[in-house]
Design goal:
- By secondary structure, this protein is an alpha/beta fold.
- The protein has a domain of 151 residues: P-loop containing nucleotide triphosphate hydrolases (Rossmann fold, 3-Layer(aba) Sandwich).
- It is 46% helix and 15% strand.
- The chain starts with 5 loop residues before the first strand and ends in a 5-residue tail after the last helix.
Length: 226
Amino acid sequence: MQRDYQGIVLFGPPGVGKGAQASILSGARGLVHLSTGDLIREEIRQDTELGRRVKRAVDRGRFADDETVLSIVMGQIDRPEYQDGFVMDGFPRNVPQAEMLDRILADRGRRVTCALFITASDEVVLRRLAGRRVCTNPDCRTTYHEEFKRSRTPGYCDICGSTLGRRHDDDPDTHRERLETYRLQTAPLAAYYKLSGVVRRVSGEHSIEGVAAEIDRILNEVPAGQ
């Protein structure tokens, strides 16, 4: 294991800002950002067999099954750019997935060095989810937010000029289903990672910059590769 290796996972309720923080971390620390959500949405966009199966689950507010997500992660984790570490967003989503990830990493002489548990109230989460927007151009898909990341021209993408819309899974009923699924399946990860001493709790109710600063402080106190 290299001295500066960092295996970072982010988890928390939907809409808490995991993707934004993972992107910031990836750029600041030179680590690959693995977003299973992005990979799954690409499968859905391409209308593959895998994408259609996942879409049925997502449309009901559920997560993709463990086998599907694990196959996606396995397809990425052995690539050369992952050897110095990673920032993982969207996996693991439950304790069995965390156990599988630990086994995969242990087989390669690696491990999760920090599990960032980003928290927020249901009220904050639902408000943030309601404000998400995405470019409708399938070759762009730049994301925006009506509160945190507005486009320069309301309703249109800054990058390609296409109209903005909601993601297919962004509706209030689905959001509430996802929150309930999160409580049942993902929240127990806090206890799981506490056993290995790597969990760190972060309030996600501050600004993106404020949360990023707190995460940076935490990671500076966590020895790399320990």
